[in-house]
Amino acid sequence: MIDAEGVVKRFGPRTILRGIDMRVETGETLVIIGGSGCGKSTFLKCVIGLHHPEEGKIVVDGVEVAKLKTERDIAEYRRKFGYLFQEGALFDSMTVWENITFGLRYLTDIPAGKYRKIASDCLALVGLKDVEDFKPSELSGGMKKRVALARAIAAQPSYILYDEPTTGLDPIMTDVIADLILDLQKQLKVTAIAVTHDMKAAYKVASRIAMFHEGKVLQVAHPEIIKISDNPYVRQFVDGSSEGPIKMKLKDFEAEPAAERTS
Amino acid sequence: MITTVVGGFGRFILDTSEETGQFTFLVRSTFGWMTSSKIEWRQTLIQMSRIGVGSLPVTAMTAFFTGMVLALQTGSSSKHFFNEPLFVGTVVSFALVMELGPVMTAIVVAGRAGAAIAAELGTMKVTEQIDALYTLGTDPVRYLVIPRFIAFMIVLPLLTVASDFTGILGGYLVAKAKYAIPATVYWHDIINNMEVRHFVHGFLKTFIFAGVVSLVSCFKGVTTRGGAEGVGKATTAAVVISMVLVLVLDYFATAVLNAFGIT
Count of domains in chain B? Predict the structure, then answer.
């Protein structure tokens, strides 16, 4: 279980998270939606310990992230997580199988002789085969996402954090990746947090959906409730409308009327 | 106007202080990890090959022509004053072994390998590969910085020794071809006047240069911000700062070594 209480995160003068209170129950898939820059990815990075909140705390299975000090404790904590980065973040200099098994060396005691087999098994889980010796540069966008997913599950984590798993993919591949996430949830029985803009994928994989806006949680509810939410912010986001309380400027300045320019 | 200038100066001081603090933290982490965890020897060997073998042709060629031009200048000056080319071997060897060999090798390697390190780590940073290292249970300082630091510490002194020899050889070719100085005279000049401490003087400096170039390049790489433009800026900054620091520290290192009688 992941428990966030009053999480505040600032970068210099900018406050990104303004007191996030949220609980992710064991076995569920919580999807976080919200506009760009609302703090979704920052929250994920706080959960895994890449960022440290200025205020509040995040507790995972009774362990508070900020209180981890020794290398062993930190490794033990990270061992629980698989993290899928937005662009995959595959290591360019390594082959696919080296990428997938990279974390095993640091997170597990599995002998190196078994790595290749584990890589093939993880690739099979994400629907790929015979790409073990390819470099990331030789893969398509969809294949990179799958390999990154295979890397995220290689150390058999209890939690998977997906940072925009479908961004940049075509609609069919988006659906395939959403199916894959669902399939992995069923097979591996993991707890997951997924950050996405894609409402179709969100409805498909979510046990619950949380809407973030300006660093705060506006609503957390079952997808069916989110669909009919009467919160105007949530309503605008799920409808994908430019009209509503969420103001996103078309441009940063107002154009002068033509008459004024010519005068 | 005054407010803008004072504000800009204040911002510069703050940024420089922040960067110095971050750099100090990186240096501390590097030595901390080196003493507390296993060294990535495979990565270190890869870096030694890239930095050392890859740089050898260019450092050797630079030193070769430097030795040639030193012999040419010394020969023509002494001919002008004494009517015959005197002390060519002595001047070439002293200049190369104590100053030009270490400094020029460090500058050439900073331009070649330092730039490559900053660009590689910078690209890893902006594509979240460095964050991925954290999530996969290892620390970027341990996996990326320490192997490069150790590789530089081993390879730069060796490259400098190679530069010293090729430079002296280049000087000999000019002394022989241009001024008809016999081999015995040229080499006797060197052997009779040069002592081990002169060699040690130049050799010790290479460790300082190796530390500075490797750590500055790694620091600029891992703190890169802002996509392709940021990588370009980080690479330029790494090379410029490394080169300036090599020249500045050369003076102070020489002063300290002289004070200890290693001169």
Answer: 1
Measured between alpha carbons, how far is A180 from B16 in angstroms, rounded to an integer?
Answer: 47
Residues 200-259 of A with CB under 8 A from B: none
The stretch B46-50 carries a mean pLDDT of 95
Which residues in chain B are contacts of A89 at CB distance < 8 A?
Answer: 127-129, 131-132
Q: Which residues does chain A have within 8 Å of residue B132's beta carbon, measured at their own beta carbons?
A: 83, 85, 89-91
Q: How large is the average pLDDT for residues B157-166?
A: 97
CB atoms within 10 A of CB A132: 17
Query: ipTM for the complex?
Result: 0.85
Note whether residue B217 is domain-resident: yes
pLDDT in tens, A45-102: 999 999 999 999 999 999 998 888 887 788 888 889 999 998 899 999 999 999 999 9
Domain range for residue B126? 40-259
Asked if A6 has any chain B CB less than 8 Å from its own CB, the reply is no
> Contact at 8 Å (CB) between A77 and A68?
yes
Residues of A in contact with B137 (CB under 8 A): 75, 78-79, 103, 105-107, 155
Residue B11 structure tokens:
């911002």
Query: A2-67+159-222: what fold?
Result: Rossmann fold (3.40.50)
Beta-carbon separation of A106 and B134 below 8 A: no
The pLDDT assigned to A263 comes to 44
Does pTM top 0.95 for this prediction? no
The stretch B1-25 carries a mean pLDDT of: 87
B220-252 pLDDT tens trace: 999 999 889 999 999 999 999 999 999 999 999
CB contact, 8 Å: A51 with chain B? no
Cα B179 to Cα A48, A112, B28: the distances in Å are 70, 63, 53
Contacts A107 to B, Cβ<8 Å: 136-137
Q: May I ask the CATH class of domain A81-156?
A: alpha beta
A2-67+159-222 and A81-156 have identical folds: yes
Model confidence over A124-138: pLDDT tens digits?
988 888 999 999 999
Between strands A55-60 and A216-221, the pairing is unpaired
